[in-house]
Design a protein that fits this description.
30% strand, 6-stranded mixed beta sheet
Length: 216
């Protein structure tokens, strides 16, 4: 399978503290990765480096492109659900229109997944994103990420704020992803995702301490 994310000697420092330490790894098409570790292990920092949100030291290529300087091109093929919803100052309708344009995705696909997650979009179209509940924000963000059929799907605690019924819907969608999609799920609940991942990566203090294949 093709290497979609290539990392060599990646380091990230905040206030003279190395949060990621000379990390080297590859993530390939078809990898379904459970990214685990305690708070402060470096999981979210690694994801943000991959997304081009941080400067860093070392080599990082996503889909063959530089994560920082070619970020906009990369993000056309990356779906992302953050651990904490961003403070988007748009209405639900405006957000869907915006994502529809930049990702060339039919807005109806966002609506379909949101409705499957039991978020009735039609009742909230003109509501500011900031006024939605935590669960509603999460359902909308999940729908925006999944509807695009991205080559790379990054989810940071994807089931946070989701009710049990919505979790089942989300996991069914994840299990149905195309075989060559690279999926990275950062989660504290390994038992919840172990039947849909084929690779377990554990981070501790900015380093990968476990990287093993799993039977699906």
């Amino acid at each position: 399978m093709d290497t979609l994310i290539d990392i060599k000697n990646l380091s990230k420092t905040f206030n003279k503290v190395k949060v990621i330490k000379d990390l080297t790894t590859q993530f390939k098409a078809g990898d379904r990765i459970a990214l685990i570790g305690q708070n402060g292990a470096g999981k979210t920092t690694l994801i943000r480096c991959i997304l081009g949100l941080y400067t860093y030291e070392g080599y990082l290529r996503v889909l063959g492109k530089n994560a920082r300087t070619e970020r906009e091109l990369i993000l056309q093929n990356v779906g992302f659900v953050p651990q904490l919803p961003p403070p988007l100052k748009m209405t639900v309708s405006e957000i869907m229109d915006f994502f529809s344009v930049i990702t060339k995705t039919d807005r109806a696909k966002f609506v379909k997944i949101a409705n499957d997650l039991k978020l009735d979009i039609s009742k909230h179209l003109n509501k500011p994103f900031l006024k939605l509940s935590g669960g509603m924000k999460q359902k909308l963000l999940v729908s925006l990420a999944l509807a695009r059929n991205p080559k790379i799907l990054l989810m940071d605690e994807p089931s946070a704020n989701l009710d049990p019924e919505a979790r089942v819907v989300l996991f069914n969608y994840l299990k149905a992803l195309p075989k060559d999609t690279l999926m990275i799920l950062s989660s504290h609940r390994v038992d919840e995702i172990e039947d849909m991942v084929n690779r377990l990566i554990e981070m501790d203090l900015g380093e990968i301490v476990v990287d093993e294949l799993m039977d699906v």
